[in-house]
Fold this sequence. Notes:
Number of helices: 9
Bound molecules: protoporphyrin IX containing FE
Protein name: Succinate dehydrogenase / fumarate reductase cytochrome b subunit
Shape: globular
Organism: Salegentibacter echinorum
Keywords: Membrane, Transmembrane, Transmembrane helix
Order of helices and strands: HHHHHHHHH
GO cellular component, one term: membrane
Number of strands: 0
Largest sheet: none
Amino acid sequence: MSIFFRKFIIAATGLFLCIFLIVHLSANSLLLLPEASARGLYNAYSTTLRENPLITAVSYLLYLSIIFHVIYAAIITIKNRKSKGTGYRVNHKQENSTWASQNMGFLGVFILLFIVVHLVNFWARVKLGIGESVGLDVDGNTDVYEITYTLFHNIYYVLFYILLMIPLGFHLHHGLKSAFKTLGFYHKKGLRVLAKISLVYAFVMSIGFGVIPLIVYFK
Length: 219
Ligand code: HEM
């Protein structure tokens, strides 16, 4: 399998995951509202998504994207490591010389750790019914807000969620730039604009997701 094909899969799935994060952050920003309105809105939104067959289909695409992104990224990282010292590298050092670009695999491991813990915290309980059962709110919707509220009143989880947004930010910054390049959008003219978009995107995502646990903690 060619290096380009592997890089294409990483870039395409990565872009899809970036779009998911925009939607996910927008939905989770409901948690910043005062509790009286946040609970009802967050739970109603979450129920609407879960009951929509089209969104369910997109969710499966999301899980596949995470799996393929991780597998192909792991293959490229391992190949890069092996080719070190042989005079051949899959990634050219001069082109990709930032700290994040040299450590995407290392950053990715932290993000994978975050996603596993995060899915156990929420997804496994809400979607698979694994772990402590989740109650209903006054409107009869699954009380996902309560899980969030309880989790983010535990200082260790708050710190975990905030700290893990640092590698996420670095990974998204380099990853988005890299995806634009692989998919052919990164021409000399637009280089600065796309680099700025990647920086702003990574900043908004990491600060946005990092601020939510902190604000909920003080609610
Ligand atoms: C403040 C931070 C976050 C909160 C409060 C949060 C909350 C949630 C909740 C409640 C769910 C379950 C949704 C449902 O089924 O109703 C969920 C699912 C998920 N979250 Fe997050 N999330 C946060 C950050 C993140 C981040 C940073 C990532 C990725 C790096 C992420 C990735 C996912 C994924 C992949 C799912 C499964 C989606 C699906 O089944 O369709 N989340 N999150």
